[in-house]
Structure formats: C-alpha cells, structure tokens
UniProtKB/TrEMBL annotation:
The lineage of its organism: Bacteria, Pseudomonadati, Planctomycetota, Planctomycetia, Pirellulales. This is SDR family oxidoreductase. PANTHER family: NADPH-DEPENDENT ALDEHYDE REDUCTASE 1, CHLOROPLASTIC, NADPH-DEPENDENT ALDEHYDE REDUCTASE-LIKE PROTEIN, CHLOROPLASTIC-RELATED. It comes from Aporhodopirellula aestuarii. Keywords: Oxidoreductase. The keyword Oxidoreductase applies. Residues 52-239 form the Ketoreductase domain. The keyword Heme does not apply. Belongs to the short-chain dehydrogenases/reductases (SDR) family.
Length: 297
C-alpha cells in the first residue's frame, strides 16, 4: 500500500499542468493553460536600457514576450518580429505600451533574408536607431530515428534557427556600430551541451548558435558590439504544446533538478543583464537558466 501511495505521489508531482497540444508551430500563447508568466509582479525597472531600441525575434510570446516587456520596463522601445500569431503579438504590444514605450510589430518568416533586412530597416526607420538585437525565434520537430528527418525538415529547422541569425546580424551590424554599447543576444539551448536523442537537428542548430556567438563576439569586439547568448532549459512557452504529445506536455520540466519547468520571466532577466551596462565586460559568453542542470558550458 505504501509503495502504491508513493507511486501515485510521484505521478501527481510529475504532472505539472493539464494535458494539451497545438497543431502548428511556433504555437500560440493565447491557447495555453495555464498561461506562461512573462514578468514578475515585483520586477522594478531602473532605466537600464533607457533611450535604446531593440529588435526581438519571436517577440510575440514566451521568452520573447518576456524580453520585450522587461526591455520596455527598463526604458527601451521594442520591435517584435513574429510569424503569424497576430493575437499574441497584439497582446505583447499592449503590454509594452502599458510600460510607456513604443512597440512595432512585424510579421514574416525569419528564414527569408529579404524579410530580415526589411525588419531591421523598419525598426531603424521607426525608432531612429538600433541598439540591441535579440534572436529568439526557433522551431523543433521530434524524430526518434535520424532517417526520419527529411531534407525539408532539416533545411527548415536550420533556416529558422541559425540562418536567420546570420541574416539579421548581417543587416543589423552597420546600425549597431553607430551605437556605443550595442549588443547582440542569441538564444541557444541546454540541448546544445547535452544533446537530445529526439531533437537531433534542433540540437545541432543550437550547438551552431553557441559557436556562432563565440566567433561573432571576437569578430565584432573591436567595433564595440558585444555578442552573448542564453541557453534556456525546459521553459513553459507555446513551442512546447506545439511540439510534444499531450502526455509529455503535462509532465514537461518535471525531470529538471528543480522538479519543474521554468517560466519565461525566469529567462527574461538574463537578456536584460546582457543588454545592459551591467554586462559591459562580457562578450562571447552564455548564461544558463535551466533549472539546475550542470552542463559546464
């Protein structure tokens, strides 16, 4: 009887939320239950980014939304780039404007170079400057066997996750050079360091992002542009129900050392830190909000 009780307790602990799934990536925050937490109620801005302008890909929801709202609370105007989740983007815009800052929404495919160039131009035209580029957009498609990864999936995953960073950085760097203290922040993943047997192509892109971050940081150091990255662990974002089965989503994050999935706001502060003068002596580095998993990266 005691063993059965223990098993029931473990099952209850592992299930963190109602089973749910979505049929299309990158997913919609408006359909999630419970909703992710973008900003702590007690987070007090201190003008760390006052007068600056930032472009954030994947800024409509999840970690990107948290970054957008926190940047606004710290005094920055923000441009959010997203695919086609218009309701989520409008909600993020409302939250940014509630902080008294301007928000530009731009819908399109970050895997398209011309779109990336256009997004940078629109941001500079709207705000008159670009100080911070945050690359947060991503997609992932689980496959148990490597021969199940089609050429189409492989190309799409790399195009969204890493090609987009090249395209955006190429377009952004000429503008960033004009702004002292400018910064690029890329989003990699804990999977870049420990791998993931069911997300081989996704993990490969995240490893590429780590190498790209380190290489670009050295390339741009003399221009005064800092390049760093954040490697989240299991974070409750729309990409999760849009990726995994209902059963996996219900237990998502329960195997982390802290025993739960993280919230977007538990990553957002990393992006504030890396964009601010608090990180003025950091470039080529990666922060790891992952619930306690030690990956020595």
């Amino acid at each position: 009887m005691a063993n059965k009780s223990k098993e029931r307790g473990k099952s209850d602990k592992d299930q963190q939320r109602p089973p749910q799934s979505q049929s299309e990536q990158p997913g919609k925050e408006s359909l999630m239950h419970p909703k992710p937490i973008s900003v702590r109620d007690n987070y007090v801005g201190s003008d760390k980014l006052k007068g600056r302008s930032a472009l954030i890909t994947g800024g409509d929801s999840g970690i990107g939304r948290s970054v957008a709202v926190l940047y606004a609370r710290e005094g920055a105007d923000v441009s959010i780039v997203y695919r086609n989740e218009h309701d989520d983007a409008e909600e993020t815009k409302r939250l940014v404007e509630k902080e008294g800052r301007r928000c530009l929404t731009i819908s399109g495919d970050v895997g398209d170079q011309e779109f990336c160039e256009s997004a940078i131009s629109k941001t500079v035209d709207e705000f008159g400057r670009l100080d911070i580029l945050v690359n947060c957009a991503a997609e992932q498609h689980p496959q148990k066997e490597i021969d199940k990864i089609t050429e189409e999936q492989l190309v799409d995953t790399f195009r969204t996750n890493i090609f987009s960073m090249f395209y955006l950085c190429q377009a952004a760097v000429p503008h960033l050079k004009k702004q002292p203290g400018s910064s690029i922040i890329n989003t990699t993943s804990v999977t870049a360091y420990r791998g993931s047997p069911g997300l081989m192509d996704y993990s490969a892109t995240k490893g590429a992002i780590v190498s790209f971050t380190r290489s670009l940081s050295q390339n741009l150091v003399d221009d005064g542009i800092r390049v760093n990255a954040v490697a989240p662990g299991p974070i409750w974002t729309p990409l999760i129900p849009a990726t995994f089965s209902e059963e996996k989503v219900a237990k998502f994050g329960s195997d982390a050392p802290m025993g739960r999935a993280g919230q977007p706001h538990e990553c957002g502060g990393c992006y504030v830190f890396l964009a601010s003068e608090d990180a003025s002596y950091m470039t080529g580095q990666v922060l790891h909000p992952n619930g306690g998993e030690i990956i020595n990266g």
